[in-house]
Every structure is written in C-alpha cells, then in structure tokens.
Amino acid sequence: MPPIVTILIVLALAILVVVKITSANPTNLSDEQAAKYSKWIRILVPVALIGVAIKYFIGG
C-alpha cells in the first residue's frame, strides 16, 4: 500500500474520532470565550505563515 493511502486512512479515522467525541459532548462558547480564541488565532496564524515562509526561503 502506498504511504499516501496509509496517511489518508489515518487522517480519516482521526477526523471520525474527533467528530464522534465533539458531537457527543457539545460545548457552547460564550461571546467572551469566542473573542479570546479569535484573538489567539489572529496572532498564531500569521506567526505560523511567517515561520513557514522563512523555512521555505532558507531552504529547510
């Protein structure tokens, strides 16, 4: 079996597990919690993109 098929199977299983767990125990976010998570995501996504760009241009 090619490695890509194995990776896709593992990824699909992980997604199924996460969906089952989160649908069994739904949690509601307050507006304050959503704003807090949004703030962190707005900080971390550009940092990750900059890190990937640096790695790409350095040749890593």
Low-confidence stretches: none
User: Mean pLDDT, nearest integer?
Assistant: 92
β-strand amount: under 5%
**SSE run:** HH
| Portion in helices | over 70%
End-to-end Cα distance, whole Å, is: 29 Å
| Dominant shape | flat
SS elements, strand count: 0
Total domain modules: 1
Assign the structural class, choosing from mainly alpha, mainly beta, alpha/beta, alpha+beta, or little secondary structure. Answer: mainly alpha
Number of helices: 2
Radius of gyration, taken over Cα atoms and rounded to an integer in Å: 17 Å
Largest sheet: none
How does this model look, in words?
This protein has 60 residues and is mostly helical. It has one domain (3-58). 83% of the residues lie in helices and 0% in strands. It has helices spanning 3-24, 31-58. 0% of the residues are buried.
List its traits.
2 helices; 83% helix; mainly alpha; 60 residues
Task: Describe the SSE topology.
Elements: H1 3-24, H2 31-58
Quick recap:
By secondary structure, the chain is mainly alpha-helical.
